[in-house]
Predict the 3D structure of the following.
Amino acid sequence: MIAEGGLAALWLAAALSLLQLIMGAVALTPGREEAGAMVRPVAIVQGLLTLLAFAALIAVFVMSDMSVKLVAANSSSMKPLLYKFAGTWGNHEGSMLMWVTILGLAGAAVAIFEHRVSNRMLIATLAAQAAIGLGFFAFLLFSSNPFERLPIPAADGQGLNPLLQDPGLAFHPPTLYLGYVGLSVAFSFAVGALVTREVNAAFARAMRPWVLAAWILLTIGITAGSYWAYYELGWGGWWFWDPVENASLMPWLAATALLHSVTVLATRDSLRAWTVMLAVVAFSMSMVGTFLVRSGILTSVHAFAVDPERGSFILALLALYIGGALALFALRVSTVKEGAQFEAVSREGALVVNNLLLTAILGIVFVGTLYPLFVEALSGEKLSVGPPYFNSAAGPLALLLVALMAAGPLMRWRRDRLKTVLNRMALPILGTAVVLLLVVVFAPPIGVLPTLGLILAVGVGIGSVAPLWGRNLRRTPLFTWGMVVAHLGIAVSLAGMACESAFTKETLVAAKIGETKQVGPFSVRLDDVEPVAGPNWTALEATLTASRNGGTAFVLKPQSRSWPNPPTETSESAISTRWDGQLYTVLGKQDEDGRWQLRLWWKPFVTLIWLGGGMIALGGALSLFGRVRRERRYHDRIAYA
Amino acid sequence: MKGFVLKPSRNLLGEGDRTKCGDRAAGGGNTLRFAPGPSTIPKQGLARILAFALALVATPALADSNLPAAKWANEQLPDPRQEAEARTLMLTLRCIVCQGQSIADSDAELAGDMRAMVRTRIAAGEKPEAIRQWLIERYGQWVSYKPLVEPMTWPLWLAPLVLLGLGAFLARGRFRRHR
């Protein structure tokens, strides 16, 4: 019954989104404005119904209802409760339902909280949100029904991929999806503003918190995903330029650019058309990512051609929404004035260069991810585009962007002088020079990119706190603090990346019981390997005793796990975190001589990568909080006046 | 021939292989995809693996690789400079039975064999780019994460310049000219 209830809620929500779209469109024609009264309530109810459908799916997963096809295919009654729960979105249908749920809830949130824009524009925005929702409801109901029953209930399920049986699964996908789909609000706002011809600073101020919120969640999602891959895969890598990773990076890059251009629009009423365009691009990237991952096209263009139903469906939606938005943009762009021009040396000027570089990096990631698919579809030749391409094509631009990041916030709006900007930057530049000297003199030869990364990180780290100098810190607005913390986070993260790639020590060895091996400053002794059992796995667990330069000993217990359902082996790394880095250990197989494979890494300051990511998200949160609070006060003051 | 992955067919054609490789797409990454989707290794994949395995056997450098675990699959070369060279190369070679992993970070046995081959050849004094070339000639560009510079990949390599040029062209109207 629960499954049928969920399906009914889904159909009802789909019907309401159709109603929301029609009523919204009607209300925009002159003389029929009264139809608009329905749009807000319908959007809220639609959001609640999708939430109900999602809750129903969670319920059948938690209760292990093996008569539901999706549960039987992806769950197992033996799993711990957490993974029954999180397993709801550990599969195609469930994750698409989560996608649609967030889309519906985002629409409902706009309907409830948004009071800054004109009623007409709000209605147009909600109608656009409903139009997106409608397509994805159709996708779920016609080609990916999560509530389908089996004719005969299965005895037990086929289980969840063991790599997914990690607490990360409970948090990572929802966070990332909230970010992806949150960008739909920016898209709908852009469409709404184009339809009602209200592309102006007020529109930018209304859109900004939504973009910021989505961007914060994307940042957290990407950071957490990177750490998850790092400890779960057991090879010590933290970013692979994998197409699936790129699918999450592209919306983030677009949202970052949007975040900066929307500030120019809100503050200076300039860059109107460009900001609208970026809002369209940002959510388009979310949909491209969904298409890449959900269509199976990444595995092989041929797999897509053999079973094209889902892929074609998403591709058609993609063409419809992106094409539609771009057509609307082309029709209306002549009525949108770009606003005032500006001096090259000014805050606006720096932000334009920021946007230019971010968009170029986005373009490189986009081309690098999609071009191999394009070539394969056309000629059958299979290309691989990986780290060497992305690092050499996007790396220099990214470093340039980071360098500019130190200068931008030190420039004044409207107009500034190069000389005074350089004066303000004296200390960061000095810091960069000192570190460059230290690296050249003391460090062993490291690559060009890590060297540049390291020296820039220090210079930019100093530069990013420079906007606070000489200010009364208690009266500095919260969103300025947010900017400083986020920019500092970029520098911290960059320092981590540079240290990891320059100074990592690796030891891959076969060790007998009792043997001691060296990795960087640590000596690691293999004491023992013993079998252990968990709730739904068995494992061989090594006991490693490590000490740093003969200091206090500590124990690490990496495992090699075997899972019966589905039959798989995974390695669970054991990581010891120090203040200045991580010791990363993995247990491999036993060879014929009875020796155990060990993989040991000492990764100095690797933790800075994710600490920086967290700071970036924190900066975003401070900024969001500061903006919302300031606006509320402003409104209160108007109300009292 | 125990060193090769030709054991259970499930490993080559079914879900097993994905997890064996540590399927980033399903597991670790910053992913939209969390699910074991439809089976990932197409038939073509099997042909490639067989071709690869046969070619390895035919290679003199790997004459002793029919020992159980290839010697250099999981052990470093004694010379740190050579090992660094090998590692840099391995990070840019694709494990052809996995989904999107380099041979330097894959649990698949085939990746181990490829690592052993790379280390053996580096130790014998071969240049990394020569090894890459050798692999590309046999298995196509798929095996290398570093696209060649040739007419087919020109769009890739020109993209950054074109994008920057286009962006600068679009942005130029925004800046006020000084008289």
Q: What stands out?
A: Residues 166-414 of chain A form one domain. Residues 189 and 577 of chain A are 44 Å apart (CA to CA). The mean pLDDT of chain A is 90. Strands of chain A lie at 505-511, 516-519, 522-533, 538-548, 553-556, 559-564, 567-572, 574-578, 581-590, 596-604.
